[in-house]
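Quick one, probably user error.
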């Protein structure tokens, strides 16, 4: 069932843990949580949701020339992908100077529309958008070994959740088709909603940025159990991994030939994995295949 996982310490750690857990824990306690960007699918050269937002910011800058000298609209209008990606990387290093204007723009980019209209915008994006360097649809950028891991866990009575810094409503349309995870098991960042005349409308008020220490708080709020298995790939996943009382997996991006080779934004997580004995999953060494 783990056909794309090479024999080695990572695969052995997974199989040994699952076999023990099936004996030791009832199914209701077999909760597994997964980050999304960089853990279940590709996050470089920029996050998929940033690509969606980039297109929206460019539309806004086209309609309002005064926005073209302000970030992140300037980056979107000129096609400067570096600024957008660096804003998130700097956040994981503790510098939110660029994240603040980015978040402010995000909050006003899709406000006062119904949740159904928002979902339709996401569906339209996924229907045509392609990864800029891998030349494949984003819907084909999920990691095959991780999808196999999801199925393997399900076959052994685990319930899988996504707990991600990405937008909850952005992930929900594709969490089922890509990962077999229904929308009610997606925990992510969100904005406030208001009800008017039979519809839910988005607001520009932030609700949660589901990252770092917020992740365990949000997963407890939504799930009500400590996970027994957690998988992440960045500094923003450290607290979720800490909160897990079983197997902790950290995906290391070290395969420039098949995906990307980088540790930026994961330096603290990799150091912590070495210190505390978390299981590091090497794309290069542990995965026979990356994409389908």
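Nope, works fine. Designed sequence:
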């Amino acid at each position: 069932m783990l056909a794309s996982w090479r024999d080695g310490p990572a695969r052995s750690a997974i199989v040994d843990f699952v076999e023990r857990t099936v004996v030791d824990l009832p199914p209701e306690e077999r909760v597994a949580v997964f980050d999304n960007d960089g853990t279940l699918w590709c996050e470089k050269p920029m996050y998929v949701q940033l690509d969606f937002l980039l297109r929206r910011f460019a539309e806004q800058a086209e309609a309002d020339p005064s926005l073209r000298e302000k970030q992140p609209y300037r980056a979107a209008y000129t096609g400067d992908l570096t600024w957008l990606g660096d804003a998130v990387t700097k956040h994981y290093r503790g510098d939110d100077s660029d994240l603040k204007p980015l978040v402010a723009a995000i909050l006003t980019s899709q406000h006062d529309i119904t949740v159904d209209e928002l979902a339709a915008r996401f569906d339209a994006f996924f229907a045509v958008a392609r990864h800029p360097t891998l030349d494949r649809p984003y819907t084909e950028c999920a990691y095959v070994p991780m999808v196999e891991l999801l199925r393997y866990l399900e076959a052994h009575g685990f319930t899988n959740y996504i707990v991600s810094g990405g937008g909850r409503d952005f992930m929900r349309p594709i969490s089922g088709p890509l990962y077999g995870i229904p929308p009610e098991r997606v925990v992510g960042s969100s904005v406030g909603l208001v009800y008017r005349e039979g519809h839910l409308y988005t607001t520009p008020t932030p609700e949660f940025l589901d990252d770092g220490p917020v992740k365990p708080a949000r997963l407890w709020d939504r799930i009500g159990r400590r996970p027994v298995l957690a998988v992440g790939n960045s500094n923003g996943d450290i607290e979720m991994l800490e909160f897990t009382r079983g197997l902790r997996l950290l995906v290391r991006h070290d395969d420039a030939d098949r995906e990307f080779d980088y540790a930026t934004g994961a330096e603290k997580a990799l150091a912590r994995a070495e210190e505390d004995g978390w299981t590091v999953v090497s794309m290069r060494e542990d995965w026979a295949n990356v994409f389908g």
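The chain has two domains: 9-41+137-286, 48-109.
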